[in-house]
């Protein structure tokens, strides 16, 4: 059952000498999650904070923290709503301390753990307990998400409404509540993620091939969308992209 809500756990350690090095960027992704930040110390892992974050609609850039260690949990798009019972749109572009959703202090529990596998075990047990309390998954939203991913090149909001016999207003309300973004934004994000996969796999001869394959209006449209969602144009993504984990670019 854990895999129905959690995509994967990830860790990232970055050690840099100054804040003048390349920034840490995040691009717009279709998932929410949890991230723990740790102070780097030779004697062990000392948690600074544990945050739950929602969907994002704009990329970010950070030069303030030259060195850090992070442990993250990438959740499926509907998991925030299903696990925590909250309106996902309230968490869009926001972060909230995980302790606000729990009667226990994660900072206190994790402080006693000496390695990452032990911390992941604590998180896994926490999610297993949360999942046991879930009354049911929203099958409509999960089918809708899969429909978008299967037909990412051509899918439209109208197609979704016709397929599921739902009005555009109802569809938008459901996605905002359960995922945190509008159907149009979600489709745009999934299409961009497909473009990133093609760029990373070098599965094209020229960038206009990606624009054509994914049904962007033209190459200029593809460039604008890539910059809106990643902060970089496709050529820079092609030459500089180094996606470490989740939606983090170094």
From TrEMBL:
<feature type="domain" description="HTH araC/xylS-type">
    <location>
        <begin position="138"/>
        <end position="240"/>
    </location>
</feature>
<dbReference type="Pfam" id="PF20240">
    <property type="entry name" value="DUF6597"/>
</dbReference>
<dbReference type="InterPro" id="IPR050204">
    <property type="entry name" value="AraC_XylS_family_regulators"/>
</dbReference>
<dbReference type="Pfam" id="PF12833">
    <property type="entry name" value="HTH_18"/>
</dbReference>
<dbReference type="InterPro" id="IPR046532">
    <property type="entry name" value="DUF6597"/>
</dbReference>
<dbReference type="GO" id="GO:0003700">
    <property type="term" value="F:DNA-binding transcription factor activity"/>
</dbReference>
<protein>
    <submittedName>
        <fullName>AraC-type DNA-binding protein</fullName>
    </submittedName>
</protein>
<dbReference type="InterPro" id="IPR018060">
    <property type="entry name" value="HTH_AraC"/>
</dbReference>
<dbReference type="GO" id="GO:0043565">
    <property type="term" value="F:sequence-specific DNA binding"/>
</dbReference>
<keyword id="KW-0238">DNA-binding</keyword>
<keyword id="KW-0804">Transcription</keyword>
<keyword id="KW-0805">Transcription regulation</keyword>
């Amino acid at each position: 059952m854990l895999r129905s809500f959690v995509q994967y756990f990830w860790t990232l350690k970055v050690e840099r000498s100054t804040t003048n090095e390349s920034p840490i960027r995040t691009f717009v992704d279709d998932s929410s999650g949890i991230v723990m930040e740790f102070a780097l110390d030779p004697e062990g892992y000392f948690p600074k904070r544990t945050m739950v974050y929602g969907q994002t609609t704009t990329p970010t850039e950070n030069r303030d923290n030259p060195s850090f260690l992070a442990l993250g949990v990438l959740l499926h798009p509907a998991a925030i709503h299903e696990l925590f019972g909250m309106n996902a749109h309230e968490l869009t572009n926001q972060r909230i301390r995980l302790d606000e959703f729990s009667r226990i202090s994660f900072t206190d529990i994790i402080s006693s753990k000496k390695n990452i596998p032990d911390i992941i075990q604590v998180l896994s047990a926490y999610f297993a307990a949360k999942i046991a309390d879930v009354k049911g998954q929203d099958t409509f939203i999960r089918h809708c998400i899969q429909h978008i991913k299967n037909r990412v090149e051509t899918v439209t909001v109208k197609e979704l409404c016709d397929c599921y016999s739902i009005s555009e207003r109802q569809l938008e309300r459901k996605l905002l509540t359960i995922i945190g973004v509008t159907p149009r934004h979600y489709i745009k994000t999934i299409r961009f993620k497909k473009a990133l996969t093609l760029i990373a796999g070098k599965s094209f001869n020229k960038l206009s091939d990606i624009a054509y394959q994914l049904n962007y209006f033209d190459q200029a449209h593809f460039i604008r969308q890539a910059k809106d969602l990643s902060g970089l144009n496709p050529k820079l993504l092609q030459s500089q992209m180094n996606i470490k984990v989740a939606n983090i670019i170094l």
